[in-house]
Fold each of these.
Amino acid sequence: MTSAQEITPPMLARTLHEFEDCCDLVHRVMPGHGIDLLYFGNLISGDRLNRDLLSLIETSDQEQLDRFFRQSQFVRMTDSKELVLGILAGHAAFFYKGAAYTVDVAGDEGRSVTPSEVETTITGPHDAFTEQASVSLAMIRKRIKSPHLKVIRLSVGEVTKADVFVLYIKDIANMDYVNELKKRIADIEVDAVLDTNMLIQLIDDNAYALFPQMLTSERPDAIASKLVAGRVVGMMDGSPTAFSIPASFVEFFSSSDDYYMRWLIGSSTRILRFIALFITVIFTALYVSVTTYHYEMIPQNLILTLAESRSRVPFPPVYEALIMELTIELLREAGARLPSKIGQTIGIVGGIVIGQAAVQAGLTSNILIIAVASSTIASFVIPNYTMSASIRLIRFGLILLAGLWGNMGLAMGLAAVIIHLCGMTSFGSSYVTPLAPNQPAEWKDVFIRAPFSKLKYRPTQQRTKNRLRSQMKR
Amino acid sequence: MNVNGNGIITEKLSSFHLSVLVFMTQFGVVIFALPQMLSKTFGTNGWVMLPAYGIMVILNLLLVGAVYRLGNGRSIFAILEQAIPRVLLMPLYLFLVAVWAMLGCLVAKQYVLIFQMIAFPTTNPMLFKLVMDMLLIWLMLKGLYNISKAATLFFWFSVWMILLVFFFYGEFKFSRLTPFILKGGEGGLRDYVGIFAAFLGYELSILTFQYTDAKTKFLRSTIYGSLLTTVFYTYICFVAFGFFSFQQLNKMLYPILDLMAFIRFPFIERLENLFYGFFLFTVLLTVVMYLWSAKEACQRIVPKIKEGVLAPAIVLTAYVMAFFPETLSEVQAWLQVFSELECIIAMGLPMLLLLVLGLTRKKASGT
């Protein structure tokens, strides 16, 4: 009589008790072989179970079965908690001769790999992560064929127990970041974490900050480039988004496309994005400021057009601008929530209402429409959606300040944003690097995208011991 | 890399940060009036005196550098308290707190009053100052390292304005500079000191010792920062002297504001109030450095009071004080007095510290 035999019968009973009222649990009894089998029918691959296990078991005699259960794919369980977790993770539990074994037969049903809808690129690979972490991990492994790529599994959510994976490249990533990320994930105490975007809010430095402190992406090529640059990556089962740490403000303005295009084109696109940032932040606010307080700033030949356009508008510029900005935000939100076919209708209706009717009805001026529309378009030029949303929110504050105190209000608002940015950190490193701490040598991969032969070093923010990327031939 | 308990990495000021911090503290609203002050005080081609002021600043910084070296980078308060009983130091600390807090508050008030003059004649300037003070408290509480980060960002956001000087090249005439040098000036000692006030701010670097390490290259960085101020001041004033005539300069209150009003783009013109708005960045930095210094000194008087209480208390007191000088000329008169006091601090404090360091060394070697 072994000790396992003493433990196991209660273990089967206890496991069955744990899963009481779970109609999706399958309990198969094979009396001829003395085997009890437990699994969730929806979590496993029936094919794998039948082909790899059951068909073999059914044709085996007692001696062959004993040998069969000694194979390494069978993990012997002694703790019923672990057994329960295994079954929940899509394993099949075998109870044989008083011992309990689990075998991973998890099904890989899920969404197939499709192009990313949030981060589209023109050139470069189109595949995006899926909700299945195993598929997403495979995409990274296929891109980084190195044993130095390490993957650590953690679990979050007291109830949901979702798998979270921490990825890094040994000898390139700084282990302080890896350990800090592991610690923060392990310290999360919350019932459920359902998406990466939720996870990163639970582990960031400044919970009240306006801007995202971790870069998120659905693109495996982007995430692979972060890993190679020495950043640490996190992924979560059930979410198609991965994140990388540490992040800096300017990092959100680069896209994979910049590296796939020729350097001059990539550089111009980068500059364009910073111009877009400038436009989206201050254009409407400047319109409000100038038309409310500083009419002298408008040249003579433009003032007639502007006065004519504003003459029928009954509101002060700040109300006019806020109404239009709000309408645009409503349209954007409606467009984002509606199915794409109806979404197009919203676009057309919104376009006509905003473009034509509002001006004809005398509710707003033509020039404001141009200001609001260009700053909205500019906000979508920013490749990261979370960052773009944060920046659009700032705009409202700046419009209000400009309406209150003109250029002074605008300058105060901008100063507040800068002070806020300077106080922010991402895993303890400055959020505004390479501007402060000032690293001009890194600007060539931030404000422009210099030719690859010039991008020899990894950014200092990662604090990697291995700064040199490699010797690149000219 | 030093990591504190919260996993936050604490870093020392880099060389560039310190230079920018010194530059941003020095550079301020005075530039708008500087050409007029120079032409009134020194007469024709008054701008040539600016490098001389720059040299004086460097000499003063050498004194500060000597304190840094002899004190091995210890905080000045530690050096003082090591040799002099705290009770005796209290009046000095109070004096420092008063001068620094008042200077910060007056610079801010001067800025908002000028803005009120050019754009918002009916708005109460103290309302502007209230919002500005809220920004200042926020920035102050972030600590010197983050202030220096903000200085760097503000620097990049405002330094581009120097490019605007190109607009005046077309109208610049060497004949307006006149062949005479320093003729027609009517300035006395107080006016000379008044111009030196434009350079003040560098002396606060004496409080940054414990935020630096060998990599900061303290003396070199502060000198670079002050040199940048001198170069910028000289360049702008030189162009102003060649743009306006000597007589014009004498009559203008803020020549640089008038200069900026000449800039025209096809879609926007009269940009002086927009650019003046951007000057908020440099003013914020100047003021925050004075208020932060006041807070550092005040913390020595009342060490038990938390930073989060002390900073708003100092700013609030300074805010109340700012009600007293109402007009721009009153503010300028007050500023003159406090700048003179600050000049004494700038020279006197390093000398006192050197004396203390010398004495303690002697004592140590004697025993």
Note: Chain A has three domains: 3-104, 133-247, 273-429.
Amino acid sequence: METILAETKTYISTQLLDDASFPLEYETALISSGLIDSISTLKLVDYLEKKYHIEFLPHEVDKDHLDSIELIAAFVQSKMN
Amino acid sequence: MNNSKPIDRLHQFLYYFILFLSGFVIYQFQIEKSFNLLSVYSTVLLFVCIRPFSEKYAKSLLPVFFSGVLYYLYPGIKFLYILGALAILLGILLPSYNFRIKISLLLLVGFILSFIYIFPNTAFEQIRYVPFLMGSLFMFRSISFIHEMRFTKKEISTIDKINYFLLLPNLSMPLFPIVDFKDFVASYAAPNFRQLRRGTLFICRGIIQLLVYRFIYHYIVSPISGVENIADVALYVASNFLIVLRVIGAFHICIGLITLCGYTIPDLFNNIFFAHGFSDLWRRTNIYWKEFITKIFYFPLYFNLKKRGEYVAITISTLICFAITWFLHNYQWFWIKGSFPVQIKDLIFWGVFGVLVTMSSLWQQRKLVHKEAPKNKVQTSQLIQLSLSSLLVFATMSILWSIWIAPDIAAWWQLLAHVQFITWKSLAKLGAWTLGYLIVVYLYHSYQKNKNTRFKTIASHLESISVYPYLVVIIALLLAQVFSQKKIQYGLLLKPIITEKLNKADQENVDNGYYTNLISTNDYCTQVWSSDLNKDKKRTKYINQNITIMTNDMMLCKYIPNKKIAIDHILYTVNSEGFHDIEYSRSKPLNTYRIIVLGGSYESGNGVNDNEDFITLVENNLNKNYTIKKNGEPVKVEIINMAINGYMLLQRVYQYKKYATAYEADAALLFLHTNYNQRMINYVARLLYNNNSVEDPYLAAVIKNKQLKKSDTEATLKSKMGFAPDSLNAYSIRSLATMSKQDSILLVGIFLPAVKDPINSSDLQNFMQLSKQYQFPLLNLENVYGDKKKKDLSISEIDFHPNKVGNDLIAKKLEETIILQQDIFNLSITKK
């Protein structure tokens, strides 16, 4: 879980955000705050699918599972199990 | 919320105070009065006041409050019909059972409701508000609901589900259809200070945006005829794009009201005029819609296509989603207005917008693939680039929007042609506006980029401090309203924005029949839409849209034979010949004195029921109450109403040519009103514009000599024509007088003053002179309306055609005049 959290945070801050100084935390709202848009969300899903060998269904791409790094990690973990 | 510190309680009091003041502003400024905003607002305010004392039952109380407003707006049997429809739809949606059966049942109900909606029948007309309301509540939310219920594993209470469909603001804002079900249910919270603050601020923001909209609508948006040079074109397209503020303001009020009810739903618009890319604009504009489309259509499409590569998947999914958006906008319009308009300009708008968003998304995808390292500090060059991008997006969208709101592509092209007229003054204006926009947008981007660093302190307190400017503005508005009432000079400047009124451009358009046959999916941004929603207020427009078809000759348009429409218990029937009258045989029956009526909208009686127009009343009264003889033989009088909405004098010449002898008329009544010169210019413009064949030699010569062109605006036509409209009107009257003499048909002119402008002596003088010159009698119905006020005689506050009272008065005066002047008709008329 810790690894997923750290890797996802690194990916988002380096690959999806423009502003390196943004104070990204594990609980920071990503989608609902508008920090990442739908194209970036799909890019993130693609990364998670490839990185952790999991598969998302279309209805799983939403705030319930992807709105924060914490939620992402928990969802990825549940998928891996 | 009750156990808070004194300072917090003071803040709470401040927000409650602002809420009450805002209600007062809504009342004083008649904000969304046509949509009954005040009744919905007052109800929510009442709910907010009692909520802290009844939180346990608050959620369950919401449907009760909804029903209360519903009963207020639709009393008596209407309320029961709506409750029945609500029970059926909720009965289908809420229980858990097979989704396919659920969808089939919904489609069946939708089909029945749409049948009621579009079938022209007086019985259905009485319940036509049911599909309208059900459409507003269920057309999209049922889709979002079914989608979420298919996948959710959470238990959701029935009351949350009911509250999701019965959103109070929908009773005043039918165009507020989509809310994400999952977001809605998850957003409920007990009353708290943040909720109160957020709801209040959204309402304040919405009110101010609606007033800014009115200011732009009345003072900046110019009529298309006033566009002369490049600066005018820029101002026209930009100001027409800016009036989208009406939707933004109204939706913000809806969000505020829903938040105050306990459901803190997300923001809906995010500074759309500052978007720095087309996909960025798509994300900022109607966020609920974008999320609905993304969730229901985009993601499933993308996941199906992503094996073919990300670029292909993005391209195809985005383009399909825009096609769906176009279709769903028309679907929405069907439920709100009862029509499904398919127009080229809609396809162009959504098509071009779709292509721009697709390109922008592909560009963004490319940037993510070849991502540069994020920067630590925002650079000035980056902000300048963003500002220039915003300018490009704003300009492109303004142009695209101007296509969408134009009557058609040719009219838009004609408007755009004025960019070739460039003067130093116009360039200076354009430069100043551009610079002004760039400065504002630069400051905006600068704040956005630095709000987590340099402006962190301001950003974190922005919500709490923004209430003070709102408070100042609201108090200033109320004071200005008082000044306006007291007719203090500067207060008077606010007068046009204090009430819901058409601006000069729209009033001109309505008067000139510009909106005839114009059904657009976007005219909500003008005040015309609000009056259109209550069709009885603008009955003439509704009749024109539904009963008239264009022709390619001098007549320009005609009524559709055998067409019948019903508007709020009022039936308007056209006979097999295309007249708003009962059937008449072409050959005149024996012992009949036949009169034909040549006229326009007043005579065609579109403000009243089939048998209540003054022509029918006079015909019935004469036959019922009087013995009428011709040459000693008793006769029956037939008055055939050939009047058509919007017909000008020249159109009546051709109406006469076609029907007067064919119907063996003894007399022709030519009704004459006022302001014919401007309307003649409008008629010529429409003839040229529609490429109608100009078979009239006099008009053809005018067009040739004055070099009138299809591309000329009305202002240009007016200046080119000079006195020609006057001469065309005189020519039309002369033609009718000559033809009627040749046909031995008695031509009788009848001067009937307009309800809107009853005293216009110069027009009367002119008609009297023409009657003398061309030797036909003129009956004068001056003072027909007596002391009655305009509002008591008109269909509505914006449609000045005579209502039943007006028609009764005209009938009485006309009947008296005919009896008094019976010698003119060579008839003997005596009371039975």
Note: The domain at 584-831 of chain B is CATH 3.40.50.1110 (Rossmann fold).
